[in-house]
Amino acid sequence: MGGHPVIEGVREWQADLAAIRQDIHAHPELGMEEARTSALVARELKALGIAVTEGVGKFGVVGTITGTRPGQRVVGLRADMDALQIPEATGLPYASRNAGVMHACGHDGHTTMLLGAARWLATHRDFAGTVHLIFQPAEEGRGGARAMIEDGLFERFPCDAIYGLHNKPTLPAGTFAIRSGPALAASDRFIVTFRGTGGHGGSTPHLATDVTVVQAHFVLALQTIIGRNVPAVEAAVLSVGSIQGGSPISPNVMPAELTVTGTARSYTPAVRDLLERRIGEIAHGLAATYGCTAEAVYRRGVPATVNHAEQTEVARAAAGALGAPVVEHAPVTGAEDFALMLEQRPGAFMFIGGGTGPDGTSPNLHTPHFDFNDEIIPAGVAYWVSVVEQELGMGRG
After folding, report:
1. Distance CA 267, CA 182 (A)
2. Which pLDDT score, from 0 to 100, does residue 245 have?
3. 160: helix, strand or coil
4. What domains are there in the chain, each with its CATH number?
């Protein structure tokens, strides 16, 4: 990608952007607590002469740039700002100063790349239409996209198309990856509580209804949903994350209640409905078999992230125009609340390679050793500018 004018232009002030990124990294904030980060974003945008609206969905910030050429089309570019509840172990000079919280998913880099695009677009407005720069709080499970939408995001800032960008470790730096259709999974959770009589596990187990036996069969039976109910050509995941019941200091007491919780991932509404139905059927059926009762709760989180065909091609073209490799991305069973925005407006979610370290490896997302690669900032900024060029004809005619 060497020689592309935007990339070369951004490199002149890459150090400024890296300093912003590292400052955000050093001061991470959990979802719906991004007071400092959103204030930083608003301050940077205002310094560029960009119209700024704060407090959208509590801590969301929207910057609006109108092109100098006539045009009615409006494009939204979205970045997330929140951190994760993970203690940082990088040992970096700019490591987290907030104990137990760190930017382990690269949202500090996402925010910075969009701020870089704001800086470029604020001084290169030769496009026909409007760009909304959407800085979203609380992507990591705390409802930031929903909060902005419910606060009238798309009514107050109408968008004909919406785009997202996420870094991906191990994908070569300077490479982009995308797919049309389902790109990331729906993320749901299930909570199943089994209730019986409990009893003395040593002297009178025969007089008890044993919920531990029910849960053992239940955990095994969950995988029959994947193997025998979900069509073989489709994908889904069911994993148990917690089993709670009884007391470790009373091993001779059979618990009267036991709870199993876990996560469910799927790509289509039909499979999502199937998972919910079968989890309940199996829980109630097994409980009845062993003389117990069951309560099954299925809580839907964000839906699958489904890229729209037209905007996927726009995103491909935007990355390709940089001279970058654009590869087909396999579906990811991780989830992204950008999916909610894609339910409201057509759009696409792109991955940008974060590269690897000298040993050919890179700490993965959501791990204590992860750090965003500042070297990809110019490519990320250039991608956003290229999306505007593809959508609004920047620099043409």
Report:
1. 6
2. 97
3. coil
4. 5-184+304-392 (3.40.630.10), 186-300 (3.30.70.360)
